[in-house]
Amino acid sequence: MKYLFLLLFTILTSINASDIKIAVAANVSYAIDDLIKEFNKTHPDVKVVVTLGSSGKLTAQISNGASFDLFMSANMKYPNRLYEDKIALIEPVVYAQGSLAMLSNKNIDFSKGINFLKDERIRRIAIANPKTAPYGKAAFEALQNAKILQSIKHKLVYGESIAQTVSYTLTATDIGIIAKSSLYSSRMSKFKRGVNWIEIDSKLYTPINQGIVILKTSKEAKAFYDFILSEKAKKIFLNYGYLTP
User: Fold this and answer.
1) What is the pLDDT of residues 152-200, one digit of tens each?
2) In total, how many domains does the chain have?
3) Cα torsion through 56, 136, 214, 10, rounded to 10
4) pLDDT of amino acid 12
5) pTM of the full predicted structure?
6) Which of 101, 167, 190, 191 is the most exposed place for a label (fewest CB within 10 A)?
7) Distance separating the N- and C-terminal Cα atoms of the chain
8) What is the Cα–Cα distance from 30 to 36, expressed in whole angstroms?
Protein backbone atom coordinates (compact mmCIF):
# COMPACT_ATOMS: atom_id res chain seq x y z
CA MET A 1 0.00 0.00 0.00
CA LYS A 2 2.80 2.38 0.90
CA TYR A 3 4.51 1.61 -2.44
CA LEU A 4 1.29 2.31 -4.34
CA PHE A 5 0.83 5.59 -2.50
CA LEU A 6 4.38 6.71 -3.32
CA LEU A 7 3.93 5.66 -6.95
CA LEU A 8 0.68 7.60 -7.23
CA PHE A 9 2.27 10.64 -5.57
CA THR A 10 5.20 10.50 -8.01
CA ILE A 11 2.87 10.27 -11.01
CA LEU A 12 0.71 13.18 -9.85
CA THR A 13 3.78 15.27 -9.08
CA SER A 14 5.25 14.62 -12.50
CA ILE A 15 1.95 15.56 -14.16
CA ASN A 16 1.65 18.82 -12.25
CA ALA A 17 5.34 19.65 -12.67
CA SER A 18 4.72 20.80 -16.23
CA ASP A 19 2.01 23.28 -15.19
CA ILE A 20 2.93 26.94 -14.95
CA LYS A 21 0.87 29.65 -13.30
CA ILE A 22 1.05 33.15 -14.69
CA ALA A 23 -0.44 36.39 -13.39
CA VAL A 24 -1.55 38.43 -16.38
CA ALA A 25 -2.66 42.06 -16.62
CA ALA A 26 -6.28 42.28 -17.78
CA ASN A 27 -5.43 44.11 -21.01
CA VAL A 28 -3.55 41.01 -22.22
CA SER A 29 -6.65 38.83 -21.77
CA TYR A 30 -7.58 39.36 -25.41
CA ALA A 31 -4.24 38.08 -26.72
CA ILE A 32 -3.33 35.46 -24.13
CA ASP A 33 -5.26 32.56 -25.68
CA ASP A 34 -3.49 32.99 -29.02
CA LEU A 35 -0.16 33.31 -27.23
CA ILE A 36 -0.71 30.07 -25.32
CA LYS A 37 -1.84 28.22 -28.46
CA GLU A 38 1.33 29.26 -30.26
CA PHE A 39 3.49 28.34 -27.26
CA ASN A 40 1.86 24.90 -27.02
CA LYS A 41 2.83 24.12 -30.61
CA THR A 42 6.38 23.62 -29.36
CA HIS A 43 5.55 22.79 -25.73
CA PRO A 44 2.40 20.63 -25.94
CA ASP A 45 2.84 19.10 -22.49
CA VAL A 46 2.96 22.41 -20.62
CA LYS A 47 -0.35 23.60 -19.21
CA VAL A 48 -0.45 27.37 -18.76
CA VAL A 49 -2.82 28.44 -15.98
CA VAL A 50 -3.77 32.13 -16.20
CA THR A 51 -5.00 34.49 -13.48
CA LEU A 52 -6.21 37.84 -14.83
CA GLY A 53 -6.52 41.09 -12.91
CA SER A 54 -5.32 44.64 -12.51
CA SER A 55 -1.55 44.85 -12.23
CA GLY A 56 -1.73 46.53 -8.84
CA LYS A 57 -3.95 43.86 -7.31
CA LEU A 58 -1.91 41.04 -8.82
CA THR A 59 1.26 42.62 -7.40
CA ALA A 60 -0.36 42.77 -3.96
CA GLN A 61 -1.28 39.09 -4.22
CA ILE A 62 2.24 38.14 -5.27
CA SER A 63 3.76 40.22 -2.46
CA ASN A 64 1.49 38.40 -0.01
CA GLY A 65 2.63 34.96 -1.13
CA ALA A 66 0.38 34.05 -4.07
CA SER A 67 2.03 31.29 -6.07
CA PHE A 68 2.85 32.33 -9.64
CA ASP A 69 5.72 31.42 -11.93
CA LEU A 70 5.52 34.55 -14.11
CA PHE A 71 3.97 38.00 -14.01
CA MET A 72 2.98 39.89 -17.16
CA SER A 73 2.22 43.41 -15.97
CA ALA A 74 0.60 46.37 -17.73
CA ASN A 75 3.53 48.58 -16.77
CA MET A 76 7.11 48.45 -15.48
CA LYS A 77 6.42 49.94 -12.06
CA TYR A 78 4.96 46.83 -10.45
CA PRO A 79 7.51 44.32 -11.83
CA ASN A 80 10.30 46.68 -10.75
CA ARG A 81 8.81 46.77 -7.26
CA LEU A 82 8.78 42.97 -7.09
CA TYR A 83 12.39 42.87 -8.25
CA GLU A 84 13.47 45.48 -5.70
CA ASP A 85 11.69 43.45 -3.01
CA LYS A 86 13.64 40.36 -4.17
CA ILE A 87 10.44 38.53 -5.11
CA ALA A 88 11.09 38.58 -8.85
CA LEU A 89 14.18 36.62 -9.85
CA ILE A 90 15.24 38.84 -12.75
CA GLU A 91 14.93 42.47 -13.74
CA PRO A 92 11.76 43.14 -15.73
CA VAL A 93 11.94 43.62 -19.47
CA VAL A 94 9.39 45.16 -21.84
CA TYR A 95 7.39 42.61 -23.82
CA ALA A 96 4.88 45.01 -25.44
CA GLN A 97 3.80 48.63 -25.46
CA GLY A 98 0.12 49.44 -25.10
CA SER A 99 -1.99 52.40 -26.17
CA LEU A 100 -5.33 54.00 -25.30
CA ALA A 101 -8.55 54.32 -27.27
CA MET A 102 -11.98 55.80 -26.71
CA LEU A 103 -14.88 53.43 -27.38
CA SER A 104 -18.66 53.73 -27.47
CA ASN A 105 -21.33 51.30 -28.59
CA LYS A 106 -23.02 54.32 -30.20
CA ASN A 107 -22.02 56.11 -33.39
CA ILE A 108 -19.90 59.07 -32.30
CA ASP A 109 -18.62 62.22 -34.01
CA PHE A 110 -14.98 62.01 -32.97
CA SER A 111 -13.90 65.14 -34.86
CA LYS A 112 -13.12 66.92 -31.56
CA GLY A 113 -10.95 64.06 -30.33
CA ILE A 114 -10.66 63.69 -26.57
CA ASN A 115 -12.40 67.04 -26.05
CA PHE A 116 -15.62 65.33 -27.10
CA LEU A 117 -15.78 63.97 -23.54
CA LYS A 118 -16.89 67.45 -22.39
CA ASP A 119 -20.05 67.21 -24.47
CA GLU A 120 -23.16 67.45 -22.27
CA ARG A 121 -24.58 64.35 -23.98
CA ILE A 122 -21.72 62.32 -22.44
CA ARG A 123 -22.87 61.77 -18.89
CA ARG A 124 -20.77 58.78 -17.81
CA ILE A 125 -17.24 57.84 -18.86
CA ALA A 126 -15.62 54.50 -17.95
CA ILE A 127 -11.92 54.37 -17.12
CA ALA A 128 -9.82 51.86 -15.20
CA ASN A 129 -8.92 52.67 -11.61
CA PRO A 130 -5.73 54.78 -11.85
CA LYS A 131 -4.60 53.55 -8.43
CA THR A 132 -4.31 49.90 -9.47
CA ALA A 133 -4.52 49.73 -13.27
CA PRO A 134 -1.73 51.25 -15.39
CA TYR A 135 -4.15 51.92 -18.25
CA GLY A 136 -6.30 53.86 -15.80
CA LYS A 137 -3.29 55.88 -14.74
CA ALA A 138 -2.48 56.61 -18.39
CA ALA A 139 -6.10 57.62 -19.05
CA PHE A 140 -6.04 59.97 -16.06
CA GLU A 141 -2.78 61.47 -17.33
CA ALA A 142 -4.25 61.97 -20.81
CA LEU A 143 -7.27 63.79 -19.36
CA GLN A 144 -4.99 66.00 -17.27
CA ASN A 145 -2.70 66.87 -20.19
CA ALA A 146 -5.72 67.60 -22.40
CA LYS A 147 -6.80 70.01 -19.65
CA ILE A 148 -10.28 68.53 -19.34
CA LEU A 149 -9.98 66.38 -16.21
CA GLN A 150 -11.57 68.84 -13.77
CA SER A 151 -14.53 69.55 -16.05
CA ILE A 152 -15.40 65.85 -16.53
CA LYS A 153 -14.20 64.26 -13.29
CA HIS A 154 -17.78 63.95 -12.02
CA LYS A 155 -18.61 61.76 -15.05
CA LEU A 156 -15.95 59.12 -14.40
CA VAL A 157 -16.92 55.54 -13.55
CA TYR A 158 -14.01 53.37 -12.42
CA GLY A 159 -13.42 49.74 -13.36
CA GLU A 160 -11.09 47.63 -11.25
CA SER A 161 -9.28 46.43 -14.38
CA ILE A 162 -9.26 47.29 -18.05
CA ALA A 163 -11.47 44.26 -18.75
CA GLN A 164 -14.10 45.52 -16.32
CA THR A 165 -13.75 48.98 -17.85
CA VAL A 166 -14.57 47.55 -21.29
CA SER A 167 -17.64 45.89 -19.77
CA TYR A 168 -18.75 49.20 -18.21
CA THR A 169 -18.13 50.96 -21.53
CA LEU A 170 -20.49 48.62 -23.35
CA THR A 171 -23.22 48.29 -20.72
CA ALA A 172 -23.24 51.13 -18.19
CA THR A 173 -21.66 54.29 -19.64
CA ASP A 174 -21.79 56.44 -22.75
CA ILE A 175 -18.12 56.02 -23.63
CA GLY A 176 -14.93 54.57 -22.16
CA ILE A 177 -11.18 54.96 -22.28
CA ILE A 178 -9.81 51.48 -22.80
CA ALA A 179 -6.77 49.55 -23.98
CA LYS A 180 -6.60 49.62 -27.76
CA SER A 181 -5.71 45.91 -27.65
CA SER A 182 -9.22 45.04 -26.44
CA LEU A 183 -10.64 46.19 -29.79
CA TYR A 184 -8.90 43.37 -31.64
CA SER A 185 -10.82 40.49 -30.08
CA SER A 186 -13.42 38.78 -32.28
CA ARG A 187 -16.35 39.95 -30.15
CA MET A 188 -15.30 43.58 -30.65
CA SER A 189 -14.96 43.41 -34.44
CA LYS A 190 -18.40 44.97 -34.95
CA PHE A 191 -17.09 48.30 -33.62
CA LYS A 192 -15.67 50.50 -36.36
CA ARG A 193 -12.72 52.82 -36.16
CA GLY A 194 -13.78 56.45 -36.55
CA VAL A 195 -17.40 55.52 -35.84
CA ASN A 196 -17.31 53.72 -32.49
CA TRP A 197 -13.70 54.23 -31.49
CA ILE A 198 -10.55 56.27 -32.07
CA GLU A 199 -7.05 56.19 -30.64
CA ILE A 200 -6.11 58.78 -28.04
CA ASP A 201 -3.12 60.92 -29.00
CA SER A 202 -0.12 59.08 -27.54
CA LYS A 203 1.54 62.44 -26.79
CA LEU A 204 -1.00 62.94 -23.99
CA TYR A 205 0.32 60.11 -21.81
CA THR A 206 3.53 58.36 -20.87
CA PRO A 207 4.23 55.31 -23.09
CA ILE A 208 2.68 52.18 -21.57
CA ASN A 209 5.66 49.82 -21.39
CA GLN A 210 4.47 46.43 -20.18
CA GLY A 211 6.97 44.32 -18.25
CA ILE A 212 7.43 40.62 -17.56
CA VAL A 213 9.32 38.94 -14.71
CA ILE A 214 10.08 35.40 -13.61
CA LEU A 215 8.94 34.63 -10.07
CA LYS A 216 9.93 30.95 -9.82
CA THR A 217 12.67 28.92 -11.44
CA SER A 218 11.59 26.10 -13.75
CA LYS A 219 12.41 25.11 -17.30
CA GLU A 220 8.74 25.50 -18.23
CA ALA A 221 8.54 29.05 -16.85
CA LYS A 222 11.77 29.98 -18.62
CA ALA A 223 10.43 28.50 -21.87
CA PHE A 224 7.24 30.60 -21.68
CA TYR A 225 9.24 33.70 -20.73
CA ASP A 226 11.53 33.21 -23.75
CA PHE A 227 8.51 32.65 -25.98
CA ILE A 228 6.84 35.92 -24.88
CA LEU A 229 9.98 37.77 -26.00
CA SER A 230 10.23 35.85 -29.29
CA GLU A 231 9.38 37.01 -32.82
CA LYS A 232 6.38 34.66 -32.90
CA ALA A 233 4.89 36.31 -29.83
CA LYS A 234 5.66 39.78 -31.19
CA LYS A 235 3.57 39.03 -34.28
CA ILE A 236 0.62 38.09 -32.07
CA PHE A 237 1.00 41.25 -29.99
CA LEU A 238 1.09 43.34 -33.17
CA ASN A 239 -2.12 41.64 -34.32
CA TYR A 240 -3.77 42.86 -31.11
CA GLY A 241 -2.80 46.47 -31.57
CA TYR A 242 0.33 46.61 -29.43
CA LEU A 243 3.69 48.00 -30.35
CA THR A 244 6.67 45.74 -29.61
CA PRO A 245 10.22 46.52 -28.46
Assistant:
1) 999 999 999 888 999 999 999 999 999 999 999 888 989 999 999 999 9
2) 2
3) 70
4) 43
5) 0.83
6) 190
7) 55
8) 12
